[in-house]
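User: Show me sequence and structure for the first protein, then do the same for the second.

Assistant: Starting with the first protein.
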Amino acid sequence: MALMQLRRSILGRSQRALGVRLARSFSSVSEPPLRRVCVVGSGPAGFYATKYLLKEHAGARVDMLEVLPTPFGLVRSGVAPDHPEVKSVMNDFDKVAADERFRFLGNVRVGEDVSLAELQQHYHAVVLAYGAAGDRKLGVPGEELRGVLSARTFVNWYNGHPAFRDLELDLKQAETAVVIGQGNVAVDCARILTKNVDELATTDIAAHAVEVLRKSGIKKVFLIKFLSSPVEIIADVKDSTRVGGIRVEKTKLEGEPNQQRAVGTGEFEDIPCNLVLRSIGYKSLPIEANAPFDNCRHVVSNDHGRVVTTSSSGEKQTVVGLYCTGWVKRGPSGIIGTNIVDARETVNCIVEDFAAGNYLHSESNTDEDLDGLKAVEKLIKKRNLDKQLVRWADYERLNAEENRRGELVGKPREKVTSVTEMLEIAKSAN
């Protein structure tokens, strides 16, 4: 009897020990190590990177920083207002934002309110997804004349981007517009200039744009596409500060198949016009003066999403814990969906690096180091105590107000175009 009790006792201890080991084993599988990631930019590139980070790494905690009080980047300020089906992708991004492992902080300019180096001190990884805030120029005489704009400027204006709301665009006396380019943005610009304004007024187009377009005198729009090259923008004969026309040279293709290039024929044509929109490409800019950047290609230097630098000897070195995705990674190409493949590639690199132990290790031992966003907020407030930061709940107040205003005038939303007003609406009631 005593022997049997001893055996039961030993067996019980063994089972309990095994249970502890199994519990620890399952715990280590279900609870991977915490990894804090900061995503800079809240457009499609940033949200898709966040989506797949949260999906592929259960320990990931993502904090997203955005320069504006509003998220969604070009989905809000770049997609044409008469293409609401494209904007529906915001519903997917709302689901990402609902994840408890995600946090948003708007009205933060990296490089000014907080530095890239400071972000690297408080996160295991930083993902640059801030898009392209610049545009390419033609490089021809007369490009500085009034009435010559980038398509990016025009698009941001009619979509209500705060930085472009006060653009002086007088179309009353204009009759002819010329759009240089053959991409989707060029076509959008031409369509907005000629579309029935009553139809546009039922979209989420900015109210100030509707007011100007109602008074527009534009009757004709020329799209300069293939085999034509602008060589000069001509001043108006009555006002030398304004555009009065554009001179284009007809071109032809020369060279072997797949290696052809357009060459001038010496044949020119002048097109009288009152507005010129150049739609020849966006370009990214460095996020701050010393940040890794390829000034020739206008992208962040990278290898499949891992940011790299080049030494004086020409050797490329990976910057541990720093990544990029979207236009700042590949250049301004593709559609919104292109960012999915792009983000997956970058996220795969991040997950691989986390598994290999290649991530940023903070030198700080403060409590804030356990929470990157609290550390960032503390740094920002130290520099500017009155700086108002926008969290997701704050943005939702603004979103609800825009929807309410839109409903009153028969629109899906009436965008608030002033940052000051945005912040006032977003301010917590507490």
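Switching to the second protein now.
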Amino acid sequence: MVRRRRCAHRLSCTGAVRVMLRAFKNVVGTIAGVLLLFAGVTAVGDFLIDWANPPIGQFIDTSSGRQHVLDVGPEDKPAQPTPAIVLVHGANSNLGDMRLALVARLRSRNRVIAIDRPGHGWSERAGGAADAAPRRQAAVVREVLSKLGVTRPVLLGHSWAGALAAAYALDYPGELHGLVLLAPATHPWATGVPWHFGLAGTPWLGPLFARTLAQPLGYLMLDRFVGPAFAPQGAPPDYVERASISLALRPATVMANGEDLNRLEAFVAAQATRYELIKTRTVVITGTADGIVSPRIHARAIAAQIPAAQLVVLQGIGHMPHHADTARVVAAIEALAAADQDAAAAPRATHRP
């Protein structure tokens, strides 16, 4: 009798295990099916994004593959030679952002070069995650400029690219006419990066996330991403389309952006100890209402460290000063481009328009 009960109990347990395994297989199959569906949607979306946002510049071969570059101007031949102005975009972006805000305003007097950073826009990223460091990307920018025959330009870096521009000034002293740090990310901060960017930059889950969920979620949340970047101002009309922001939703770009952001804080923590060594005449531009990159932690700190820095503080302006107050940003860039670098370093100044 006892043996029969044990057998019945054993059969009951075996049946329960089989039911659980069957349910588990069904769940796994459903998840796999959903991921395959999203992977298919992403593959189609990738093609459509490329089709809708073709390259607008030329390609330059570098050690990180082909880099996409817009090279224009000057329209009016200046009486005296003027330095080229090189514009480098931040995270989740491409050279279309700089083209939309600054290129047309600067090209009349200067040669203007806007660059897609490695892995962004239409630029390749041959080194993968190894090309995520701002120092490495600064070296690639230098390769591009060398191929274009550009010497001693004014280099502008926005947001993430503020660390890149500072790295360029540190690693290649004497090669810049001037340095513009626009709402720059230059120092370590305490809040980390949003979970989706962190996930996209991880070695194993990053590719899975980027090739399945990132693009559909990105389309659903694109306005939520763009809005805070421009707050308290609004984005220009049709900004996402005109600046080709959807290029950031392609899987390879999603992973590149995640790698960039995941590695930025450790990089700037080390680099921030050396900013006093920058001798290039520098303009740091920040908005008091920047909710993305703290002016106190970044812009004000690096302006205090660089001996020849001028801090320009724009009252009530957010993280996109080149869109929100284009005239004053252009004026600061042009003044720096026109400055005589043979003169003594400019006195430290703080300007609050």
